[in-house]
Amino acid sequence: MGLTKNEIFNDQQNQIALFAKVFGHPARVAILQHLFKINACVCGDLVNEIGLAQPTISQHLKELKQLGLVKGNVEGTSVCYCIHEENWNIMKTVMSEFLNQDLTHKQECC
Amino acid sequence: MGLTKNEIFNDQQNQIALFAKVFGHPARVAILQHLFKINACVCGDLVNEIGLAQPTISQHLKELKQLGLVKGNVEGTSVCYCIHEENWNIMKTVMSEFLNQDLTHKQECC
DNA sequence: TTACTCTATCGCAATATTACGATTAATAGC
DNA sequence: GCTATTAATCGTAATATTGCGATAGAGTAA
Description:
- The structure is a homodimer of 110-residue chains.
- The first copy, chain A, has a single domain (10-96), classed as Orthogonal Bundle (Arc Repressor Mutant, subunit A).
- In chain A, 53% of the residues lie in helices and 11% in strands.
- Chain A has five helices and two strands, in the order ααααββα.
- Chain A is elongated and about 60 Å long.
- Chains A and B meet through helix 1, helix 2, strand 1, strand 2 and helix 5 of A and helix 1, helix 2, strand 1, strand 2 and helix 5 of B.
- Chain A binds a DNA duplex (30 and 30 nucleotides) through residues 1-5, 25, 27, 43-44, 47, 52-62, 72, 74, 76-79.
- Chains A, B: GO terms for molecular function: DNA binding; DNA-binding transcription factor activity.
């Protein structure tokens, strides 16, 4: 109890859930939007941009990196983050397939 | 601590996160996929289809209903669930806008 | 009414997530 | 070496999520 039973779902379902979970927090949404907007890489600016403490931002970035959606380059004392384009596109394919499902027949009830 | 600081994010970011959070569990992904596949409405079959206990399925359905992605019709002793098409399309618009962001300029680092 | 079926809700235990202060590690500049 | 700057990690508190047994509620059928 308390832990998700991943083993009873298939790989595709688990992958969709993993991607969705990382988007399930507004801070990570905001981080990604900022990385898209500032097309050059962004470092510690994220802490100023988003109103959360540095350890919290660092933790969110870690999750984004673990899923491969963001990559970070060390540049002196600071770290430069940006969108991992190829992986973002892979994610987009997976999520789009899920979101664009169609109801082949119209419903008769409801 | 321990609670998401929604107030520091804008409505769009919070809405994306809300939609994403509901997709952030494979059981809810599986429920939605099944509802799409069985284009007629589905009732307690979900409990058999997915390997979780009835209270657990009921709870996941509740969350999907609260977000408006699923609607339920009482039919005798059972309840008939189906995708709420209009709301699903609204959600798709919101999520697509987020997923289809573009990097206007290519990155120089990373 | 009684018995049965199906779904929702309650209550709890286990686990996960969020946030941040304090600290550590790594680099840059002197 | 020392100091300043930046980011990662540790540790912990607060809250949220997941799952299910037990129970309640609502409808059907006899």
